Amino acid sequence: MLYGYIVDLLDFINKSPSPWHTAMVAGEQLENAGFKQLDWDAAWEIEAGGQYYVRLYGAMLAAFTVGNGSMTKKNSLRIVAAHTDFPGLRIKPAAGMVKDGYGVLNIEGYGGAILYSWLDRPLSVAGKVALRGKDAFSPESVLIDFGRPLITIPSLAIHMNRQVNDGMALNKQKDLLPLAAVLGKAGSTDFFDELIAIEAGVAPADVLAYELNIYPYESGCQLGIAGEMISSPRLDNITSVVACLAGIKAGIGDGLNMAVFFDNEEIGSRSKQGAGSNNLMQLLERIYIHRGYSREEMWLGINGGFMISVDVAHGLHPNYPDKNDPTNKPVLNNGLVIKQAASQSYASDAEGVAVIKALCQEADISYQQFVNRSDMPGGATLGSIASALVPIRTIDVGVPILAMHSARETMGAADQQALTMLIKRFFQ
Known about the structure:
Elements: H1 2-14, H2 19-32, E1 36-38, E2 51-56, E3 60-66, E4 77-83, E5 88-99, E6 102-110, E7 123-131, E8 140-145, E9 179-182, H3 191-200, E10 207-216, E11 221-223, E12 229-232, H4 235-249, E13 256-262, H5 279-290, H6 295-303, E14 306-310, E15 313-314, E16 336-339, H7 350-362, E17 367-370, H8 382-389, E18 393-398, E19 400-402, E20 409-412, H9 413-427
Helix pairs in contact: 1-4, 1-9, 2-4, 4-9
């Protein structure tokens, strides 16, 4: 049984080399589960007993089910939220550069990536390309994935930098330019634009813009003496996406169940498709109005609702145990993690924690708790941002991982099952 959870997770990760692919694969799974796609820019018809999903700006997706019961009573609204993006490197416009016969790419960082983890490994490219459409206001967007080892970022040899093992700061504009080709003296800077056009199946003049993600080509795998761990790119935060999808597909509850997958969490969530937008509030309002509820009734549903913000947590590192809080130290394979912070960088409060603990105890789901060391600021999630715009009780949970924001992260194989069981239990 546990093996199936691992297979599903790694398969989803392999199919999701960019946030746009993550949303696409999620949509395909929802379609296969009987969900009907709605157009964000068109009028909706929503029926009791219906299952729906909508994509926004390519990399954000929301799915919901409408039960036959009241959507205004306490706990009738239940939301899980995760994000589709991950830290790494993005390719800039006009990216082709020729340096002494080498074809390299101009890139920029995306989020708080561990930069040295991207060196000396086979990398590929995937993302969204905007093509010339029927008129200026109607570009056609297509997703591409080269799906093969395409580029690499070579380290400088230790003979030329004897201090490399003493720690070296990497300059994104100078040290992280990927090597894409050996072009010779006659090489043209158009080499990458031409490559994109070939992959998209169009003429170079028809490629007007792109948003392209660099990703590690090597697939995830199980490791450990008993195969008890998973090593993979993009565990942050596809672990959460997969668990939330499993939960929303499990069945239609009495009220309104929602799974929302935002983009741009890794860069602060403040974008038109991020948790800092008005999209969740607009989505809720449209659903309640279409079901015949007044705004006051809608607010009754929201005020009595509950949201779980699902994102990875920091596991205890065996080489750096001093980096964890003295009494809250999540260990891989010991269950999902409930995250709290007095600063509200995690949105959890005591009542919310009590709800999650009770759900876990009822279903015999393993759980742990995490807080930051008092002398370390730690990270944050979309939970506090989204719940400030839609005032609803929110709690942060996720699977514990090691090497968070590395090109390749590590988690316990059993923890994905625990997280998925919680999300399913939450929606029951």
